[in-house]
Amino acid sequence: MKRYVNPKPSEWAKILSRPTQSFEAIEPVVREVFGKVESEGDTALKAYTQKFDGVNPTDFRVSEKEIAEATGRVSEGLKSAIKTARDNITKFHEAQRTNKVILETMPGVQCWQEKRPIQKVGLYIPGGSAPLFSTILMLAIPAKLAGCKEIILCSPPDEEGKLNPVILYTAQLCGVTKIFKIGGIQAIAGMTLGTETIPKVFKIFGPGNQYVTVAKQWATKMGIAIDMPAGPSELLVVADDTANPAFVASDLLSQAEHGADSQVVLISTSGALLDKVEKELENQLAALPRQEIARQAIAHSRMILVDNDNTALEIINEYGPEHYIVCVENEDFYIQNTANAGSVFIGNYTPESVGDYASGTNHTLPTNGYAKQYSGVNLDSFMKSMTFQKLSKKGIQNIGKSVELMAAAEGLQAHKNAVTLRLNELKG
Amino acid sequence: MKRYVNPKPSEWAKILSRPTQSFEAIEPVVREVFGKVESEGDTALKAYTQKFDGVNPTDFRVSEKEIAEATGRVSEGLKSAIKTARDNITKFHEAQRTNKVILETMPGVQCWQEKRPIQKVGLYIPGGSAPLFSTILMLAIPAKLAGCKEIILCSPPDEEGKLNPVILYTAQLCGVTKIFKIGGIQAIAGMTLGTETIPKVFKIFGPGNQYVTVAKQWATKMGIAIDMPAGPSELLVVADDTANPAFVASDLLSQAEHGADSQVVLISTSGALLDKVEKELENQLAALPRQEIARQAIAHSRMILVDNDNTALEIINEYGPEHYIVCVENEDFYIQNTANAGSVFIGNYTPESVGDYASGTNHTLPTNGYAKQYSGVNLDSFMKSMTFQKLSKKGIQNIGKSVELMAAAEGLQAHKNAVTLRLNELKG
Q1: What is the CA radius of gyration of chain A?
Q2: Given an 8 Å threshold on Cβ–Cβ distance, is A92 in contact with B103?
Q3: Cβ–Cβ contacts within 10 Å for residue A86, how many?
Q4: Among A322, A352, A363, A404, the one annotated catalytic
Q5: Per DSSP, which regions of A96-163 are E strands?
Q6: DSSP class of B52
Q7: DSSP letter (8 states) at residue B345
Q8: Closest by alpha carbon to A168, among A61, A60, A67?
Q9: Size of the A and B interface in Cβ pairs below 8 Å
Q10: In angstroms, rounded to a whole number, what is the distance separating the alpha carbons of residues A132 and A130?
């Protein structure tokens, strides 16, 4: 790992820079696919699935029979693990439910705020070598708890035109209402526009490659909401001599194995700790099946040695890490003063993996510094807040004059008049 | 107003259609301005302010002296009204504050969720004939309550290079930290990229014309969050024979005076009510200063007569109104079953104007049907949720096996290893 010792603040931005990618070149393809799906519906979906995935689907919708068969093909051990994760995620997200906020702001002026479910949501689960069923847990569980009526899931079919059994098992376990074997730009276009088979949804969630990322951004132009903008996954660890170097190394590697461009940063006030972690990295790397990927990621990863905790904190807040491990003696200092982070893992016995799978927190988190302004996925991501107000006669009499004055000052006479008419009637 | 009687569901989409506008033609200008502001900073801001607003600013930043002078130029009556509104808005948004969510999901697995302020936010307030100080109340008050450290405001200067005194008065009253005399695309570019004078912010709020709308969308491509996508303002009223026709007409007109393309819909199960409202509209229109605008909006507005409440409700949910007045005997039916609306105004004494200015609810609301998936601005709009977890030795022993199984099933050995190392140490 590349090591920096007390870098000057003017150098931080460069040291903390993420690999930025411009996807503008993909936009014309996305535009074309959306256009075709809008005009041709399922016919276009089939043509693109043939073209991009090399399979010729007879039916996008996964049948009840397929789901039932899948359940029998997942090992009991894995089922039990998934249920443990489901229980924890359910508890933690259910605890996030907020009550109706009711307030009489002035005598006779009753206001309240209520959250109601987004009626139709779409979940995208990428394909690839391994089935990302953990992301289904993270998206479908809060969607179901929120009360979304339609929870659809799209995932690209494998070479045989199928979805992995564990994907189907997890989806039905978590309350997904319809599963579709379709991926890529065409899946996002289908959920955005609606076709004969795929229902149009109001919000789309889930990770994906660059095509899916651009397609989701395109969908926002058409009035569809998305969970958050995407970027490569990342981990920042702050550790001192109380941290177990082998554990720290294992956490850095669990991030590094995601891809050669994975983002890993280790900050410490202890040079000795950095030395020990470096040695442990070498030991552990040798045993990893994804060693080559992890080695590339580690090669351009960064260790930063700083003089004191305040400097470490400033660097952390400038970075705004997606995953953030705090393994130091004075952990409260970091926990209380970190302004920007997605999910925080505290102490020697809290590896990032527990939050990736099963602790109960969500693993769909803001990358790329977006922790400065975006929340990770949570129960509220599947709801929207609505406000209500009801005034009594007394209420309009109490507030009326203020509204008249302000409306007049903004040059909106009809706004004023709506109040004046009511006040006059009450005088009469 | 155009009247529809029991339209078929297949016709609803057309009847409820909003004026859609494509702003793609504006994108090249936006791209150019952002590019120049990125490379030239303040110099570009000055050049564009000269070009688009016709004024040559010596200093964008409003001085303390200007603010002090402005305070003296706002009438005591208006100040008092603004303070009443501020108090109500403060109370209602403060009541939205949520507690930390803390939960032990399994023995030894402690998880919590906390909301922390977005550190830097930018508020955009449009210029034009009237000073929209009410929008400052709606954005700066929750920003301040949330704990945002930097709350900047940009608004275009008038012909003399100044901002209206009531804008300055309201901004300082509500805790805006810096005020800048700059508008349009260049203001949004400045807040997105940062210049010598304008700080870069993490999230941009506020309404604007089509240039500002496209610039805000452009900003999201650069990692900046925005409050919500924009569309023309709209009002839907559902009313029956218990509604006062004069009041209903005044509410429709207060929406109609916004612009010739304003969206107004009135739904009723009573033909008699529709007749009376139509007559009242004619009476009240004659007295309005913005009569011509309102008349155009009313001419293409829609009255829909339906057989029963269920049909009315279905139409309302398909529309998803920004502002929604419920003035019927069985108001509970509508309040409880409306899935999609921004802000709801209930009964004969609750005109939309009270929520526009002073009841306490926010007036920055989802238009264009976005109530289906977006919240109106609220306290949480200025915060982001972060999650935390801390496992004890017992905790990792309880959850470890499940995480190992799931990580292995997703093909992520290093994720598994981070758990295994810890479990092995605890066995030893």
Answers
A1: 26
A2: yes
A3: 18
A4: A322
A5: 101-106, 109-117, 120-124, 150-155
A6: I
A7: E
A8: A67
A9: 408
A10: 6
Phi/psi of residue A204, nearest 5 degrees: -115, 135
- In chain A, what residues touch B374 (CB-CB under 8 Å)? 225, 384
Burial degree of A387 (CB within 10 A; 0-12, 13-18, 19+): buried
CB contact under 8 A, A290 and B217: no
Determine whether the interchain pair A81/B405 forms a contact, defined as Cβ–Cβ distance below 8 Å. Answer: yes
Q: Is B29 helix (H, G, I), strand (E, B) or coil?
A: helix
* CB-CB neighbours of B310 under 10 Å: 11
pLDDT in tens, A39-68: 999 999 999 999 999 998 889 999 999 999
Q: Is A40 a catalytic residue?
A: no
Euclidean distance between CA atoms B426 and B428, whole angstroms = 5
The CATH architecture that domain B2-19+232-360 belongs to is 3-Layer(aba) Sandwich (3.40)
CA–CA distances in Å: residue B237 to residues A239, B294, B345:
59, 17, 9
Cα→Cα distances A273→A240, A294, B144, Å: 6, 21, 41
Angle between helices A165-173 and A64-72 (to 10 degrees): 110
Distance, CA of B133 to CA of A412 (rounded, Å): 13
Q: Which of B157-161, B249-253, B328-332 has the lowest mean pLDDT?
A: B157-161
The beta strand positions in A347-428, using DSSP E, are 383-391
Nearest to residue B148, comparing CAs of B139, B157, B135?
A: B139
The mean pLDDT of A299-327, rounded to a whole number, is 96
Mean pLDDT, rounded, of chain B: 95
Q: How far apart are CA B305 and CA B311, in angstroms?
A: 10
- A126 φ, ψ (degrees, to nearest 5): -65, 160
In chain A, where the domains are located: 2-19+232-360, 23-230, 393-427
| CA nearest neighbour of A278 among A307, A257, A299, A306 | A299
Instruction: Quote the pTM value.
Output: 0.97
From residue B294, alpha-carbon distances to A173, A271, A414, B262, B284 in Å are 54, 71, 9, 8, 11
In the block, which residue shows the tokens 């092995």? B424
> Can you give the length of chain B in residues?
428
pLDDT at A348 over 90: yes
How much is the mean pLDDT over chain A?
A: 95
State residue B290's pLDDT score.
85
Residue in this structure with the two tokens 């400038």, named with its chain if needed: A318
Helix (H) or strand (E) holding B149: none
Answer whether B386 sits within 8 Å of A351, measured CB to CB.
Answer: no
**Domain B23-230 class in CATH:** alpha beta
Distance between CA atoms of B359 and B10, rounded to whole angstroms?
38
SS3 A96: coil
Please pick, among A257, A323, A352, A404, the residue that the annotation labels catalytic: A323
Buried b / exposed e over A192-216, threshold 16 CB at 10 Å, is: bbbbebbeebbbbbbbbbebbbbbb
**Distance between CA atoms of residues A231 and A265, nearest Å:** 16
Taking alpha carbons only, the member of A236, A305, A245 closest to residue A270 is A305
CB atoms within 10 A of CB B39: 10
The CA distance from A28 to the nearest CA of chain B, in Å, is 14
**Angle between helical axes of A393-409 and A413-427 (0-180°, round to 10):** 150
| Domains A2-19+232-360 and A23-230 are alike in CATH topology | yes
Helix axes A165-173, A133-146, angle to 10 degrees: 20
Say whether B363 is catalytic.
Answer: no
Task: Give me the CATH topology for the region B393-427.
Answer: 1.20.5
